[in-house]
Amino acid sequence: MKKTLPLVLMLGIAPSLLLPGCGIPKEQWEQKLRENEGLQNQVKNLEQQKAQLEQQILDLKKEKEELQRVIDALKGETGKLGSEKMDLIARMAKMKTTLEDLERAKAAADKRNKAFRDLLAKFKQMVDSGKLQVEVRNGLMLVKLPDNILFDPGKTDLKKEGQEAIAQVTGILNGIEGRKFQVAGHTDNKPVGKNSKFKSNWELSTERSLVVLDLMVKSGMDPRRLSAAGYADVLPLGNNETDDGRKQNRRIEIVLVPNIEDLPTIDDKAQ
Hints:
Number of helices: 8
Order of helices and strands: HHHHEEHEHEHEH
Number of strands: 5
CATH architecture of the largest domain: 2-Layer Sandwich
Mean pLDDT: 78
Oligomer: single chain
Strand content: 5-15%
Largest sheet: 5 strands, mixed
Helix content: 55-70%
Distance between the termini: 29 Å
Low-confidence stretches: 1-21, 263-271
């Protein structure tokens, strides 16, 4: 079996993540380490899933070969061995179907791994500079941008740094053919201010996602490839009882919408 080098080695780690004491504040340095560790864990999980599928396929192939040897040995036998032979043939047919399912699952896993590698490679410079993170969460690939580079607290006007980041992200995503994207806005659990024009974090998160979507269209993205949604504070990543947790929760995510061929079939769901 062809061995796959750990994805962490292929990604490379930016010097800015490895060299403390080079003018990088301690908190930023520790945050970079946490982000890099999280990325390595995601890659490790993908590789483990692939390895498990490969092992299942190997085991089934061995069992199939053994059954085939038994069937070959039974060929020519009649009478009392007839029922055993038919049972083995039925088991063989079922195993063939299972093996084909696993082969398809492995092919899908390989496709997801390649897509994630490609996405990481495209965004490597922006990831290294701390402008965004690339993640796989709940089976979905996404690009996560912290709100501190995009918006001032409680506001929906994109800052200059945020405009530049969104334009750069759009240019990269535009090169991914056949994909649609959802712009998702998220907030922490702090209520909007009394003087805010928004009644709730639902409105704030939705408006922010629409602002980002509008800039992506102006930056060259086909609007038919985009959708927007606001999730307020209902999908937190961190603890909303801490400043660091609330900071993690205030974000914009651009989710790669799965293609129909990537989704389970009706038969797969029934099983």
